[in-house]
Amino acid sequence: MKQPYLLPDISQPGKAGCSLPALDVPPAALPPEELLRTELELPEVSEVELVRYFTALSRLNYGVDTGFYPLGSCTMKYNPKWHEDIARFPGFASIHPYQSPGTVPGALRLMFDLQALLTEITGMGITSLAPMAGAQGELASILMVKAYHRRRGDAARRKILVPDTAHGTNPATASMCGFEVNTVPSDSEGNLDLASLESMMDEQVAALSLTIPSTLGLFDPRIIEIGQLVHQKGGLLYGDGANLNSLLGKVKFGDLGFDCVQLNLHKTFSTPHGGGGPGSGPICAKSFLADFMPSPIAVKKAKEYSFTSPAESIGRLGAAYGNFSVMVKAYAYIRSLGAAGLKEVSEDAVISANYLKEKLKADYHLPYDRACLHEVVFSGKWQKAKGVATLDIAKRLLDYGFHPPTIYFPLVVEEALMIEPTETESQKTLDAFIDTMREIAREVEENPEVLRTAPHNTPVRRLDEATAARKPDLRWKMKSQRPG
Ligand SMILES: *Cc1c(COP(=O)(O)O)cnc(C)c1O
Prior knowledge:
By secondary structure, the chain is of the alpha/beta class. The chain has helices spanning 47-59, 81-87, 90-93, 105-122, 134-151, 169-176, 194-200, 223-232, 253-256, 265-268, 324-360, 381-384, 390-399, 427-446, 448-452, 465-470, and strands spanning 126-128, 159-163, 180-184, 205-211, 236-241, 260-263, 283-285, 297-301, 304-308, 376-379, 406-407, 416-419.
């Protein structure tokens, strides 16, 4: 792909992409000479060149709107555009967080109703929409765990147990809240090792932080027993519910023994994400934790909607009420699908992942050969033995026009390839991906060099990813500042 995407390369002195109207006011004096820069080297281009430049740039991007994006744990699914339109209705988009709640009863009602819907979906007692990311919902949950034990006068609980398969934010959250993080190993089936949990669970443990389904895409069949073990010793069970698209309408966190969970509206409930876009990580808790919920909570009294702050609230998580536009999209999604539609979402997500699992397990090592939920984790260790790393496989997928899956996570799987197809992909797309993965497995045998040097037909070749992430080069530079 050769594209003139550096503006100076098409710049020609004297060209302009706009014309200004004649001055009809007296010209103002320029600032003093010493404050003016004269060396500015700005590109000079016509309108059509400018449009082509930005259009070319936009085509360098890969997104859910352009292709399959099976990034495990991230749920990069397609989100209906209609929900974007609804979030842009002036009554939602043009209101201000600081205007009096009495002037926006519709917005408050939407928040109140969404709280009720999420409470119902999770089988909990109360919901707060305040957290603005999954990780912030985790933080709020663990702060609530802390507040709960403190109110009971139990200061000895200084540990949080976290499985070795956990998303990185889980141990980070526990540690940010001042807890000691103790890692619980998984067993050979990919479940939490019950014997280890039993020996680690004592009166110093504040909570077990558990992702279900786990980041291996597996549902732990002994979840009820796990909850009982934790509760017997006075601990709480906190759930990371970021990947709810596998459980919707099928099973409720409340029935599984969880005391508090966070959801990711931007994964499960129709908000496109990635690149740091707006998120929302509501928390849903059993009623005995209601006093600690983050504020505000939308309430309804005698047909009037207002906000309240629970008695011993852990406080606010931001200046206003959370990411309202994400709430609008989640509400629209839930209401347009209805109960039967939500159930179908999780059925389709689970069928898609299991389809990939069965079709690819002859070509890639499947460490846990059992039914999975919304995602499947393979190991690239057969390919690694032939000198091709999982990173090479991921880069080669780019040549075939696919976004790679999550790689090298979860950490318990060697050379992990964590594939989440999501519920919105057609069988045709899944088949094309399967064919490509099989083709890559063949290339490992026949032409490993083409993998080790991939990608070959992308705008940039293999990047130094650590430097690209830490020192991103995002700004247009003058010709004189650009390297050779
Ligand atoms: C995505 C994810 C998170 C973090 O959510 P953010 O909104 O990115 O903070 C936490 N846990 C799991 C299991 C996730 O998949």
